[in-house]
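Supplementary Methods S3. Input chains for the assembly prediction are listed below.
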Amino acid sequence: MELVSRSQRVWGWKIPFYLFLGGLGGGCYLIGILFDLFSSANPLVSKVGVLLGPPIVLIGTLFLLADLERPGQVIRAVLRPSTSWISRGIIILSVFIVLGVLHILLWVWPSDWLSDWAILRKVLDVINGVFALMTIVYTGLLLGALRPIPFWCTPILPLLFLISAFSTGLMAVGLGMTIWTWIGSDSGHSLLRMLAVYDTVLILFEALIVYFYLQGGHLLEASRASIHKILRGDLAVTFWLGFVLLGLALPFAMGIIEQTLSSPGTGVSFVIAIVIAVPGLTGGYFLRHVIVMGGIRAPMNVEGVMVSPLPET
Amino acid sequence: MGCMQADCATLVHLKNGIVTNIEGNPDCPTNRGKVCIRGISAIMGLYNPYRIKTPLKRTNPRKGLDEDPGWVDISWDEALNLVAEKLRNIRQGDPRRLVVWEGWGCSDSLFITPKEVEKSTNYTRPGIIFADAFGTPNQVGSHGPLCSIHFAANLVHGQHPEYITDLEHCRYLIAPGRTVGPNVAVPGATDRFLDTIEKGLKVVTLDPRCSAEGSKAHRWVPIRPGTELAFALGMIHCILYEIKEVDAWFLKNRTNGPYLIGPDGNYVRDTESGKPMVWDPLDERAKAFSDATIRDYALEGVFRTNGLEARPGFDLIKDRMRPYTPEWAEEITSVPAETIRTVSREFVDHAQIGSTITIDGFEFPLRPAQFGGSGRGTCSHQGGMYFDLAGKMINMLVGAVEVPGGITGNRNPGPGPWTLEPDEDGVVKPILEAIGTPFKFPPDHADMGEFYPHKHTAPYMVARSIVDPERYHLSYPIEMFLLGGANSLRGTSDQSLFVEAFRKVPFVVTITTSFDETAQMADVVLPDSVFLERQMARFYLVVHQSIADDVRGLELVMARRGVPPLHNTRSVDEILLELADRAGFLTGSGGLNDVVNRTFMLTEHRKLDLDRRYALDEIIDRRIKQIFGDDHSFEEALTHGVIYRFSARGKAGYNYYYWPEDKTRHPIYFERIKRAGDTLKENLKKHNISVPGWEGEEDRFFSYYEPIPHWIPSTAYQSPPEYDLRVVNWKTPYMPFGAGDTQENAWLWELRDSDPYEMFIQLNPQAASMRNLKDGDWIWVESPHGRTKGRLKVTNLIHPEVVGIPACYGRGTALMNPRAKEGSSYNDLITSHESTGIDPLSGSIENSPKVKVYRVGEKQ
Amino acid sequence: MRYGMVIDLKRCIGCETCTVACKAANQVPLGILWNRVFKFERGTYPNSRMAFFPINCMHCEDPECVKVCPTGASYKREDGLVLVDTGKCMGCKYCILACPYGARNSFQKFEPFYGAGKTPLDELATCKHMEGVVQKCDFCQDRVEKGLEPACVASCVGRAKHFGDLDDPGSMVTLLINQRGGFQLNPELGTKPSLFYLPDH
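Predicted C-alpha cells for the full assembly:
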C-alpha cells in the first residue's frame, strides 16, 4: 500500500523561523556567558553574545505567537508544565528573556554595574545559561515527543539543534563583533579568528550529526519518506542549496581559507566574518525549515495493512 | 425520499427553519430507521446556490451546450401559460407530437413516473398519467438503456420490475454484476444482507471488479466483461452433463420443459383443444398438458405425434447446451473451468433439491440457492437478455424459482391475476415488457417501440428518429419535449446525437432543479422544488434487490411535510396539474382526473369528480383511503411519516402459495420470444421494410429472438486490435444516478476529494505495467466512439483486461457548480449505434465497449 | 461509566454515511471530517478484496492530546469522553500532531461550502465552531446527554457501529469485544483507545 507522502500542513514557516531564532539567540547568549566564565579574553565576545541573545529570542517568540490562532489565550499556556512541552517552553522562554534583559541592562547597556560584581554576574551567567541551554534544546524535545511523526521522534534532534545553535551563535557573535568594532574602536580580529576556528570545527560536527540523523531515519516508513523528500523530493533544493551549501559548505570553506591566510588584516577578518555569517545563518533557518516541513505522519497499522492517515487542515 | 427506490422514510430536523439533519424514520420497516449518505447530503442539495430559482425563458434562439441561452426570469403565470398554450395546440392536432420524458429526478411524482399506471392495466403496459391524459404514446424514460433487467422477470415470473433475492431462506447466492444493496448503501437491504451473511449466506460475486459486496463474498469470480452469458451457459452445461442433478419434478410440473416442440420450433398443439402437448412415457402417447390422465412427463427424447417429429423443449435445450463446456466457457470468459465446476457443484448442493419447508402449515419446496437477479452490468450487452434468461434457466434446473430461498418477483404477492397466473397455454402470463408494444406501421412511437417491442427504454431511438425521420419511418414531426427530472443529454450515450435532436425540436420544456445539460437546451425551464421541499406521498410498491420476512407482503405509504421552498419553485406534480388545467385536459372524460381514477383504481366516494379540480393533497388523500381504508388519511401519513400494513404474511407472502404444485408453469423454453420474433419478421415482410439501422443484418437481428439462449459473438468487440481493454462502470454510494444532483453536492465533494477510488480510472497492476503507466498518471481512455480522461489508480480489485470508471462525472454546464465538470465521463465511451451498440431484444446499450488507454500528452 | 465504541469491520461497507451524518449532526465546517472511512485493499489479484476502516476520535484512556495541551483546553471527562474547551484553546496545534490517529483538525479561516456563496448551514457552522481552535469528534455529547447514540452509530446503514459503557459487563460493546475479539488500533502506542474494532474475518 503506497504511503501518501504528504507532510504535515499544520505548522508553517513561522515555527521553523522561531526554532531558528530561538536556537540562535540561545546560542549567542550561551557563547557569551561561556566566554565570561571561562575565558580571560576581551569581554567583547561575552558582551556581544549576551546582547544578541535575549532580543533574538524575543523576536523569535513573536513569530511563535503569530503562529497561534488565538494568541489571547497564551497566558493559560503555562498551566501544564508537568505534561506539555509547550508549557515548559513558554516558562523557559519567559525566564530566559526576563533574566537576559536584566543581564543586558545591568552589564551591557545602559549600565555596566555587573562588571564590578563578578560573583553575582557569574551566578547569573550560570542560571540563565542553563535557561539558554533549555531554550535551545527543549524545542528538539518538543518535536521529539511527537511519536506520530517518526522523523522528529529521535534524541538526535535536540543534539542537532544544540550544535546548530552553537554554530549559528558563533557566526552571529562574529558578525556582531564586526559591526561593533566598526561602530566602536576595539580591535578584536584575533578574537574573530578564534571564533571562526571553533565554528569551523563545529560545522564538521554538525555535518556529522546531520548525516547520522538522516541515516537513522531509514528504520521507519514515514521517516524514510521524510528523508526521501529532503534528499531527493520537493525539499531537496532547499536542503542541498539552502542548508548544505549555504549553511555548511560555504562557511566551512571560508573558515579554512581564513586559517590558511598568514596574517590577515582586520578588514579581511571582518569581511570573512560577514561572508561566513550571512549564508551560515540562512542555512541555519533552512535546516529547521526542511525538518519541520518534512515531517510525515506514520501510517496506522490496520490488521497488518499500513494505512496512511489523511492530511489534516 | 427522492431517489429511485421508495424505501426510506425520513425525519427531517429543522432549527429556526434551517434543515440541519436528516435521519431515518425508525417506525418504517423498509429502511430499518436508516437513510443513506445521499439522503443526508440532500440538505446540501437543498441549499445549493447553483439551483434554478425561478422560471426562465430563453432569448438566444441558438441552442448548444456551450451556447449562452440568454435566460430571462419570467413569472409562473407567464411560464405556465406559454407551455400550456403549446400543449393545447399540439393536443388539438396530433398529440403524438409531444414526447414526455421522465427521469429519476422526479421519481416521487405521481403524474410523471411510469410505475403508476401499470397496476391498473393489469400490468399489460406502463404509462405516465400526465401523458396518458394528454394522449401521447411517446412516453420515454431518459434513463434505462443500461438497465434492461426487466424483460426476463416480466416473462418468467410475470413480475416487475425484477426478481430479487429471498434473504430469509437463501444461503447461496451467485450475484452477477449487481448489488443486493451494499455497493450503494441501500438502507434496509444492506442490513438484511449483512444479517444473512452472519447467518451463513455464501455469496459468489461474478464481476469484473471486486466491489464492497464482493469483499464480503465467499468468492469473487473475476470475469471478462460481456461474457457472462458464456459463464451461464457453461454452468448449465455443467449441471446437465457433469453433475447431472436437476429438480426433475419442478421441470416436469412447473416449467414448459416437457412441452413438445415441433420442427418449426413452436409448440405441438392438440388438434382439438389447441393446447400444447406433452409426452406421457408411461402411456406412451402425447397428451394435452392439462390432461388429467397424465402420469408422467418426458423431458428428453424424440417422439412422433400429429405426424410430426417432436421433442420436449427441455431436450432441445439440453442439446443446445452440449458444446458449452467449462473449457469452452473458460476460453471466452477467462474464468477457470475449475471455478465454473466448483461454483456449479456448490450451487446444486446448496439448492437441496427435494427439500421442503412448512410455513403456516403449508408445505413449500425449499431451495436455498439462487443464481441471483442479474444486474445492469451483465445485461447491458449484446446477448444480455439471453444472459438474464440463462440465469433463470439455471434456477429452474434446481427448482429455485418463486419458492422460499429462490429468486422471486418483487411485486406484492397475492392472488391477483398478475402473479404467476397461467395463460391459456398453462405458462405464466407475461406482463409489461414481455407483452411488448404491438406492431404498427408507420410506427406510433418515436422510440421505435414497434421495432423493439420488448425493450426497456430506448431514449436514443427518439434522438435517432428525430434526426433521421425517413430512415426511422417517423411519419409525424415531433414538436415538443416535456421533461420531468430527466436529463437525456447526460444520462445516455451519443451526446452529440441528442444535441442535434434537441435542436430540431421546436419547443423544449424541462422541469428540473439544476442547470443541467437539458436545461441548457430548453426553451422554458420550470424550476422544480427539491424533494425536501415537496409534500408528496411515496407509495411503496415494490421491494428492491432483496426481501426478508420483515417486509414481505408490506403495503406502505410514506409522507413528509415539505420544507417551505427556498426559492420561487414548485413541485413537479403541482406544475403538471396546473399545466393540465390550463391546457384543457384536466377535466372531462379521458382527462387527468379520469386517468387518475383509473390508475389509482379509485372507487365510490373516493373517485374524483371529472369536472372539478382537486388539490394535490386531496388526490393523495383519496388514494391513501383507497388502499388503507377511509379511516386513514394523508394528514395521518404526514404526521406519523408512514402508514402500513401487511396484506400477505406467512405463507400468503409467497407467490407459490397461490399457484402451487402444477398449477402454473414458468417458461424455460422461451416460445414467446420466438413468437415475438416471428411476428415481427412477418410484419416487416408485410410492409417490405427492415428494422431501421439493421438493413441487411436481419439474420443477426433475429438471432437474438430464438427460444433457447445461445452464444453469439458480439460485434461490439470486433474493434480494431489497438482497443485491447474493456471498460466497465459501476454505481457508487456517492452517485448511483445523476438524480438529486449529487454531482454538485458540496458534502459529497468533500468525500470524493479524500476517496482513493472514486474519481480515478482503475487498472490492474499487470495492465498498468504493460503500458508503462503508474499510479497517479493522467490517462486517456478511448473507445471507437469517444474518449475521456482522468487520473489512474492501480488496483488489485479489477480484472487485468478491464478499465474501470466509477459513476459518471465529467460533464456539467457553465451555470452548474464548477465541480460538476470534474472527473471522467464514462458515457462518452459507449454508443447506441445499432450494429455494434445494442441488444436487439432489450434495446440495451453495450456497456463494456473495447477501449485503449494511454498517457495524456502521448501521441496515439 | 466509560463510554466506548465498537466498530464491526465485517459489516462496514465503506459507504461513508457515518461521515456525512456526523457533518450534519455537528455542523462540521468545510474541509474537516471528524469521522473518516479509510478504504484500502488486501491481497493481490484475484484473491483481493476491499477493506474499510472507519476512524473517529478514539477517546483514549491515556490521551496524547491531553498530555501535550499547554492550556488545559483538551481534557478527559470522567465518563471517558476526551473533549476540547474551545474557550481555552490558543491554537498552537500541537495536539493535532500529537494524536497518532489523526483525529483532530482545525481551520484557520471559514470557507463556505459552495463557491457561489454562503448557505444557511455555513451560518450555523460559524455559530457552532470557532476559527483557529482545534475540533474533533466528541462522541456527540449533546446527543448522548439526551440518551441518544452518536450520529455515526445511529446512522450506520449496515449497523456496524455500537456505543455504550465499557465498564458495564453486560453492555453490547463489552459483550461484542469479548465474544468477537475486539482489538484496538496501534495498541503499542499505549494510548488505550476506547474505540474497538471487531475483525473482518
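Chain C has a mean pLDDT of 93. Chain C has seven helices and nine strands.
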